[in-house]
Structures are given as structure tokens and as C-alpha cells.
Amino acid sequence: MENQNLSSYYRCPSNIALVKYWGKKNGAAQIPANPSISINLSDLYAETKVTIQHGNVSGLPAFSFLLDGQSKNSFHSKIETFFKRIWQEFEVVRNFHLHIESRNNFPHGTGIASSAAGFGALALCICDLEQQVTGKVFPNFEQEASKIARLGSGSACRSILPNLVEWGEHSEVSNSSNLHAIEILKPEKGNGFPLMDIVLIVDAGEKKVSSSEGHSLLDANPYSEVRYEVAVKNITNLIHAIRRDNMRSIISIVESEALQLHAMMMVSSPYYMLFRPNTVAIIEKVWEFREKSSLPVMFTLDAGANVHLLFPELYRTQIVNFIETELLPFCQNGLYFCSATGAAPVKLN
Ligand code: DP6
Predict the structure, then answer these.
(1) Could you confirm whether domain 195-340 is CATH 3.30.70.890?
(2) Mutate to test the pocket of ligand 1, among 155, 159, 253 (most ligand atoms within 8 A of CB)
């Protein structure tokens, strides 16, 4: 078979949301209940290679998946769901057996979300292979990859684009879409940008409630409509604040968004908490340090216990010193990861 052994290889960064995607309008179509904004974590990424091995006439997705050289059954059903969702549109998925090899450059089991980077890289490979197999050319390759990355994991659609990225319809963001993410802003190099992100590992364990379950609990959450409205306003306000380099306002929106995400978990039914005592201890230390030093450092949280510290690159030495002297006791095994932000995915050979 002439297409046998075609392959595609991509590196795709993870991302952290500044305005959170939490809640879906329609589960299977992965339509967000509110728009979100994120930046990529340039130095925390997945590298994924997909090779077409042989034909597939089974009528079902056929693939093998290796993470760091080992087969991972826990990812199988999420990848299968993804392939079923793109089955109609993607010949490469319908007609071939796909061999997927992926690695993350951050250790597994640290509580750093890997699905955005993983599905981002996989989506790019699939779009590239579709072009190779069919000879068609996607007029907007990134947009197509973002669209299908969303069908693997919602937040993955944002990892495809560089700089400040928005996903979800918003009346004041031109070209915004529920179907794919867009790059909205390349922040000027100023007092605030570029930002760095340091992820403080508070709890490396498996989450008690997955993000997918968390999203679905919003459907019956009596506070969800209010939360969606606030997120829409926060998008507008954050874009204005970044354009004006208004760090005080950026900090207040970003921290409030992190706390609202976890507040929504606490008012879900059943209620649950993903932050740990050390998460709170770090947040209090950050507030104290900011008050004392007047340095523009802010925290945000993912759906887990780890804390992301965001700050302008300019203050890296002071912030790392603060972490080393005051925050390490709250990190599991003293572990943290440092990353620049805003990078685009890269095609590898
Ligand atoms: C808290 O993208 O992981 O990180 O679409 O079900 O795969 P699925 O969920 P996922 O949710 C991420 C939620 C979040 C906030 C965010 O990244 O915006």
C-alpha cells in the first residue's frame, strides 16, 4: 500500500487558562458554556508521532498508543472517543491503523494536565496526515487542528495557537468561535509581558473528580448561569487590562477566576474540593509577598491542587528566590517547574 508508513510528528505545549472554561453547553460536541482565555506553557509540552501502519477495514477506529514507550490503557477510551467524533470527516482515521507514540517533557503523575498538550499534538498530526493521504490542503490548518483538538479535550483547542488565545463566542471578540480557538493578542513587551509561569507541585496524585465529570456537574449547579455571565465580563475586562498594561487589574481578574473555578466545585452536587491545605498556604504567602514587595506576581489554579505563579519575566530572579526560600516546604518533594509562555506548536522531523 503506497501510503503505508507515512508519518507526522508535532510538539504542542500545554496551556493555562486565565479565564476558565468550566461547563459545557453540549457534552458530545464540546461546546463551552462560556468563553475562555489562555496562554501556552512553552516549556511544558507533548511530542507526538503518528505513523500510518496499514489499512483498516474494521469500520471502527484502529490504533495503538504508547506514552513514553509504554502502552497506556487509561488513555485508550478518550482517544477512541476522539477518533469516533472525527470519523466522518477524516479519511485517515477511517481507512488506516494509526500508531501513536507520545511523550511529555514533564514527568507523569505530577498533576500537570497533559491532555491539552497531548490532544493538541495528536490533532496536528491527524490534520497533517489527512493532507498527506488525501492530497487536500486545509485552507486554515491551525483552525482545523484547533477544531478537532477540541473534540479530544476542550482546552486542547487553545494549545494550537500562540500568544494570548481565546476560545468561545464573545460579542466583543471578533472572529471568536465555539468551534475553535483564535489568537487574540500578542501582548506588547512592557511591564507585564512576557509572563513566566512556575507550577508548584502541591499534590502529584490522581484527581478525585476528573475535569469531564466536573464540567457535567455544572448542568445542575444553581450558580452556573451567574458564573458564565461573570466569565464573559472577565474576558472583556482582561483584554482591556492587558492592552493597557494594567497589572493590578490583570492580577485581580486572574486570581478571581482561579477561585471561582474552585468555588464552582464546592457548590456542585455532590460537592468536592480539589485544593489542599498547602494550596491555601501558598496563596496566602503570595498575597503577603506581593503586599511586601509590590512585585506583580499572581496565582492561578487548574482543576487540581497545584498552584501556577504568573509574573513578568523581568522579575524571575526575585520570584525564584521567593519560591526557594518560602514556598518549597509546601511543594510535594520540593518540586516545581518553570516555563516561558506564549509559544506555538512546532512540526518536528
Ligand atoms: C479547569 O479541557 O480538561 O483546566 O473538555 O472535558 O477534556 P474536557 O475538559 P478539559 O477542562 C479544562 C478545565 C480547566 C480550565 C481551562 O483550562 O479552561
Answers:
(1) yes
(2) 155
